Amino acid sequence: MLDGIPDLKSMSAEQLNALCDELRNKIIDTVMKNGGHLSSNLGMVELTVALHYVFDFPKDKIIYDVGHQCYTHKLLSGRADRFDTLRKFGGISGFPKREESEYDCYNTGHAGTSVSAALGIAKARDIKGEDFKVIAVIGDGSFNNGLVYEAFNSVSEINSNILIIINDNHMSISPTVGSMHEYLEKLSAESEQRAKKKRHETIFERFGLSYEGVYDGNDLLCMIEKLTEIKQKLQTKSIILHVVTKKGKGYLYCEENPQETHGISAGHVKSTEYSAVLGQTLTQMALTDKRIVAVTAAMTPSLGLSHFFEKYPERSIDVGICESHAAVVCAGLATEGLKPYYAVYSTFLQRAFDQVVVDICSQNLPVTLCIDRAGISGTDGETHQGEFDLSFLSLIPNITIAVPKDVEEFRQMLIESVNFNGPLAIRYPKDGFRIFENTSFDFGKWEKLCDGGDVAIIACGERMISLALSAAQIAAEEDIGCSVINARFVKPLDTQMLSSLTQKHIITMEDNALIGGLGSLVDSYFSEGGKIIKNFAYPDEFIPHGSVKELIAKYGISVKNVSDYIISNAHR
Questions:
Q1: Residue range(s) defining the domain that contains residue 425
Q2: Which residue is catalytic, options 323, 409, 447, 510?
Q3: What's the pTM value of the predicted model, to 2 decimals?
């Protein structure tokens, strides 16, 4: 039934249910091979089939928030024959992507954007005099994000009818937290609380939304009937439809373990996750230092902090998917003498940029940003790559930026950070594969890992240092001596070491965009120094999905690229 684009409208109830089973099996088989978001997509099957049955895509428009639950949508929109390439280099994305299909009308990857985007698309429809429906599908986890309420505030003002579907499965990556989660639970209450429930529904009406709920999002026929009714109502009003789904539906292990199966990784070489080191080290530090507080934005287990949260609940804060809010909470904690550690993925820290600038750095507060998945993060693609944090952080006054060369140096940096009296960012990838010889360090000071007089390679982070050392070894076989320097602090630069470099040829290597990163800073330092500098970094473009190894090679930062450059240029 998945050949081409299935004609759902001609199918019987029996055929539609059989299609749901086929879709679910295809998602399970593919994600188990390729990695991806499993439990969230299994819970979305019936709701998505019903949406495709009732509405007329791609004429009608659908925006998925955050977007990772779009697999059924992709299978129903002519991409089933390519679904085996999901998240693979050159294959289809795990998120909606306009460049991939006309059925994907808006690219998403971060939480809370769908309602604003839906209002913009609907307003454009009305201005142009066109006729189509606009639907935003948002999970209860994303529903915590402040951008949603900024959008709600504009519903009446923009006055363009949209459908908002709350997919309520009581989970984001972690169980959903906060007052809005409790509010949705009240709306889901049984009939004996009907009068109280009716009173709560009026909040949506004040925003200009007609509330419909609560319905079983995994009951296919119920969803078809309800969506058909709502489709007619959209002619005159904006509607919010509240449905409850089962995360992991149809796969018992996922149903029982929705947190662990939110995202599945494809098999990889044995490694030590930096997040595990973060959790272990902070938990140990907090035993003797009562100032330490851990803060996350709905990512507690992914960031390695589950044990910390269990052991120190009074010093653990999960604010839900509200990254900007988390940064300001940390600033408030720091003003009262506490030592907050804000653990966050690089890609999500971008959302808190203003708060890092104004609330943390302008007040010079001792908040430590633990930036996970920095650099290329791989198969989630453009919205999840972490190649910008060195660039957008390095321009902020007062902040110190650290990049450990391995998990042990990361552990040392965390321990030393307790007595660091200012904003500190420590950025690191997901996995650590190598342990170098470790030495003590002073903040702002680099480390020379090997000596050579022809070329100086300045690299930061485990991935780049490993590549630099391998390239230096190949160069040595051609009688070219290379110094390899661990630039473990990108800000401040170790100007003392830079000024002492006698080599004419300087190479920089970083798991970050070139503009604003380590290479740009070194270029500026040597702008009048007569050095010949080659920067290995990512170009001025968004990086697609693929494995870390494939993407590093694509952008010319392989061992061969670096060693070929050294051998061709060292004696010029």
A1: 272-432
A2: 323
A3: 0.81
DSSP SS3 for 340: strand
Burial class (CB in 10 A: 0-12, 13-18, 19+), 504: middle
> What letter would DSSP give residue 420?
-
237 is catalytic: no
388: domain CATH number? 3.40.50.970
- Per-residue pLDDT of the chain (572 residues), as tens digits, is 677 788 999 999 999 999 999 999 999 989 988 888 888 889 999 999 999 999 999 999 999 998 889 999 999 999 999 999 998 988 898 889 999 999 999 898 888 889 999 999 999 999 999 999 999 999 888 888 888 888 888 888 888 999 999 998 875 555 655 566 666 666 665 544 555 555 555 678 888 899 998 899 999 999 999 999 999 999 999 999 999 998 877 766 666 666 665 666 665 455 789 999 999 999 999 999 999 999 999 889 999 999 999 999 999 999 988 999 999 999 999 999 999 999 999 999 999 999 999 999 999 999 999 999 999 988 888 888 999 999 999 999 999 999 999 999 999 999 999 999 999 999 999 999 888 888 888 999 999 999 998 999 999 999 999 999 999 999 999 999 999 999 999 999 999 999 999 999 999 999 999 999 999 999 999 998 889 999 999 999 999 999 888 999 999 999 999 999 999 987 76
Identified catalytic residue from 79, 87, 247, 491:
247
Angle 339-344-346 from CA coordinates, rounded to 5°:
125
Alpha-carbon Rg for the chain in angstroms: 26
Domain boundary among 256, 288, 316: 256
Residue 351 lies in a domain: yes
Amino acid letter, residue 170: H
407-417 vs 274-288: helix crossing angle, rounded to 10 = 30
| One domain for residues 376 and 233 | no
430 is catalytic: no
Same domain, 428 and 451: no
Could you confirm whether 351 is annotated as catalytic? yes
| Residue tagged active-site, from 87, 246, 351, 405 | 351
Are 462 and 391 in the same domain? no
Residue 401, domain member (yes or no): yes
Q: Does any domain span residue 437?
A: no
> What angle (nearest 5°) sits at the alpha carbon of residue 204, between those of residues 200 and 205?
100
Residue 127 falls within a domain, yes or no? Answer: yes
DSSP 98: T
